[in-house]
Design brief:
The protein has helices spanning 13-18, 22-34, 48-54, 63-73, 76-83, 92-98, 108-123, 132-143, 152-161, 166-171. The protein is an all-alpha fold and 173 residues long. It has ten helices and no strands. The chain has a single domain, classed as Serine Threonine Protein Phosphatase 5, Tetratricopeptide repeat (Alpha Horseshoe), CATH 1.25.40. The termini are far apart. It comes from Pseudoalteromonas fenneropenaei. This is DUF4123 domain-containing protein.
């Protein structure tokens, strides 16, 4: 018989930073759930969701998987993680917007899941900081000069998320 020693400690910061794709998230989900560690932050104020949503390893984060965890696991730590602002005052969803690897339209199932996560943010009364919008748009314009003008879904998502006119998103230089 193997004896398992459970130590009530935080998840190491290095581990949080290393959960940057869906397979790693899937592997570490049981420990994150058991320790209610989704809302734990590293030295930059980032949660696992911040790291995952900003990761350049995939075209888009596994929003559908995260939404499923929220629906079926009912983990309070996971919903709290959506509300955490890092040192740059960005939520995990804002990290996704600002660190998009490409601006192509999300597949319908991932778009629907992202919108469900935004709805969870709103239910938690997380109001997007309008001051973050210019910073995000400027970063995206710089990173995606060639594709920025054709990224209609991205423009509409930003306008909807920040509850501002689409013309404002398009006018930010």
């Amino acid at each position: 018989m193997v004896e398992v020693l459970c130590v009530d400690t935080a998840i190491p910061n290095e581990l949080i930073a290393g959960i940057n794709d869906e397979s790693r998230l899937t592997f570490f989900t049981p420990v994150l759930l058991s320790k209610e560690a989704f809302a734990q932050v590293n030295h930059q104020g980032n949660t696992v969701l911040h790291i995952l949503f900003a990761s350049p390893l995939a075209a888009y984060p596994p929003f559908n998987y995260v939404r499923s965890l929220l629906l079926f696991e009912r983990n309070e730590s996971l919903s709290k993680a959506l509300a955490v602002r890092n040192q740059q005052q960005l939520t995990a969803i804002e990290m996704f917007f600002s660190h998009r690897k490409d601006l192509t339209a999300l597949p319908n199932h991932e778009l629907g899941a992202l919108l469900a996560l935004v709805e969870v943010e709103r239910k938690l009364q997380i109001t997007p900081l309008k001051a973050n919008l210019p910073m995000i748009v400027k970063h995206l314009r710089k990173q995606h000069k060639a594709t920025w003008t054709g990224a209609e879904q991205c423009h509409i998502m930003l306008a909807s998320y920040y509850q501002c006119p689409l013309a404002l998103v398009l006018s930010i230089k």
